[in-house]
Design brief:
Layout (H helix, E strand, L loop, with lengths): L11 H51 L1 H5 L14 H16 L4 E7 L2 E12 L2 E12 L1
Antiparallel strand pairs: 1-2, 2-3
Length: 138
């Protein structure tokens, strides 16, 4: 007589392996989602920086004599209550509204202006100061 063994259900080892695979997959999906959110946030900041830089470049080019005269400069000894300084203050306020840790600087000489925006970005769980700099002719 031949004995027939029929498996009824799954064994404990098979259930543990399936559970381990399920847990591993869920953890990987969670990590991927977190990574996506961080990348999307960084991309949003970089887009805003590009926009803010283009905005101040347009302002500088619209008023080249003031830019050459240092009225837009954020560093140095030029203390001014001109419309140029008001525009720089408004620009820095827009930076702070868009990027809470952001600070913009402008320095013009002759026909060139250096524009810089710095901010703090979290990378791998720690804060790092990032810089975006551009030099543009007037």
């Amino acid at each position: 007589m031949t004995e027939h063994h029929h498996q009824q259900g799954i064994g404990l080892i098979e259930a543990m392996i399936a559970l381990a695979l399920l847990v591993f997959t869920a953890m990987a999906m969670g990590q991927l989602q977190t990574s996506n959110l961080v990348s999307a946030q960084a991309s949003s900041v970089h887009f805003a920086i590009d926009h803010l830089t283009a905005e101040i470049i347009s302002t500088l080019r619209a008023q080249p004599s003031d830019a050459r005269g240092g009225l837009f400069d954020t560093e140095g000894s030029v203390e001014s209550t001109t419309s140029a300084s008001a525009e720089v203050n408004a620009w820095n306020n827009r930076i702070a509204e868009t990027i809470p840790t952001g600070v913009g600087t402008i320095s013009c000489s002759n026909e060139l202006c250096d524009i810089s925006i710095s901010w703090i970005e979290e990378i791998d769980g720690s804060d790092h100061r990032q810089f975006y700099r551009t030099r543009t002719p007037l």
